[in-house]
Amino acid sequence: MGSLVDVVKDSGRRARVLDDCERLIEAEVDDKGGLTGLAVKAAYKSVRSLRPDMIRASMDALLDDFSHQVDPFWHDCQTRGEAPRSYFVRRQADVANALLQITDQRANRSQHKVLVKAYVGLRPKAVEHIGAAMPRFADLMQRHAS
Predict the structure, then answer these.
(1) How far is CA 101 from CA 8, 66, 69, 105, 142, in A?
(2) Range of lowest pLDDT (42-51, 72-81, 101-110, 129-138)
(3) How much is the average pLDDT of 83-105?
(4) How many CB atoms lie under 10 A from the CB of residue 25?
(5) What is the value of pTM for the model shown?
(6) d(CA 52, CA 14)
(7) Domain boundaries, the chain
(8) Nearest 5°: CA angle at 130, between 85 and 94?
(9) Dihedral pair phi/psi, residue 107, rounded to 5°
(10) 58 vs 36: CA distance, rounded Å
(11) 52 SS3 class
(12) Residue 1 above 80 pLDDT?
């Protein structure tokens, strides 16, 4: 049984996880529609305009903490023998809240006012947005932690 914690310790494998994380985020942002989609796309654009590599750098900074938060879910999924997509979709609120514990802590400590403002504006819908990403997230987990 694989562990994302172990995967991200290997620099080569970590780089591939980060590549997939970037693609996942871009795909999710692209898929957003309506007024909420406009807000998400505007926040994403403002982050990218501040520093084009910020998404990757942020994911790299969060990846160790995220992997520790996700591993218990991955282990449970594997122990139950459940398909990753169905498991992570079923547990989407739990996974989202586990990940948001990390980003909430980081936002509370951040000195980047523009980023914090964007985060605070999007935070009320964060569980929903992360939940929508669960199929892609499950695929990422299966690809890298299996």
Answers:
(1) 20, 10, 9, 6, 23
(2) 42-51
(3) 97
(4) 17
(5) 0.86
(6) 20
(7) 4-145
(8) 70
(9) -60, -40
(10) 22
(11) coil
(12) no
